[in-house]
Model the fold of this input.
Amino acid sequence: MLEQSAERALLLHLSNASDSPPNFGNPSSVHWAGRKAKSALDGARDAIAASLGLEDPDELCFTGSATESINTAIKGFFFQARKDGKKARFVSSAVEHEATLASLEFLKELGAEVELLPVNREGELSLSLLEASLVKAGQGEAVMVSLLAANNETGVVFPFEEAARLSKAHGAVFHLDAVQAWGKLPGFTLAGSAADLVSLSAHKIGGPKGVGALVVKRGVKLESLLHGGAQERKRRAGTVNVPGIAAFAAAAGALSARDLGYVDRLRASLEAMVLERIPGAHVQGAKARRLVNTSNFLFDGVRGEGLLMGLDLEGFAVSSGSACNSGSILPSHVLLAMGLDKAAAASAVRVSLGPQNDENDLMLFVDALVKVVGRIRGSEASRFALRSPQI
Ligand code: PLP
Done:
């Protein structure tokens, strides 16, 4: 009863449609509040499509995260192939995001063929290895190539447009994980892209967490993972997150003003300072083409956990490989695939910069880094000195 009167009061309050917030209604409802939300959703879809260079905004399907988009693309392809009576074959790389690797692992149990391409010491992908894998596909197999545009741990960029064209030439469907590239790779656009499916995340471009999108080009058939509603042109059932998507559109709209050249110069300056002031420092993927904002550092004799905790105490939030249950850091599958040993692959730290940073931030950060690395190396050396007489 109380609930009913509260709702009535709210509806009465909102009965002047022009005063109501656009995100109050459900865009699937036909009444004025729903139409208002639908119009906010359509506007956001148009703005995001324009920012991406997508001609057809209806190719955008909103999701709850890029993880969901990736699962939808990969598993949706598999279940569609099964419906069409075909065996599914996937070609991907060993350095993909967990959302891709875990989805592929899951599908292997259901009978999918999966090949993960290796990368070289710089984290780069070879197109000739991709081609060699594509020619192995059997007659009547449904083939999907799923690749990163740029790696989230090292920032290394893959030749994704060439890979998409090559895949299409061999009759494969191409899925691109562009989560890191959008907004951090100068010139990134989907205008004229050969990719059939593209996964994106709002929070990686400055939007809210919990919103993502999957671009599904016209003609690409995917079985839906969620059932129970006709939203998003039947590609993703469930009421859409209108406020989140509106904020996603605002973040996408702001990207054109982002000065990536500035971030690139800051990153070059950071790496130069670190290499000059800290002996035994290395940048992973330094020779490869990389995103403008990511540096992956390794310091000889320094464990990742200690470094992360030390920098945290100094007020800096940097990332490392994923933490296991005991809180220690697991070796990064990306760095292992690049040929680092387990200890090194658990020791690297990832530093991300943004347009909000400046040279002063860099100096404060490098001062803290010098202090923390020095302290860890000092205590490692004294532990070794204490231990060594007993050896
Ligand atoms: N793919 C890449 C390359 C990422 O970096 C991330 C997130 O860090 C994801 C996918 C997953 O994105 P989300 O956090 O929206 O699930």
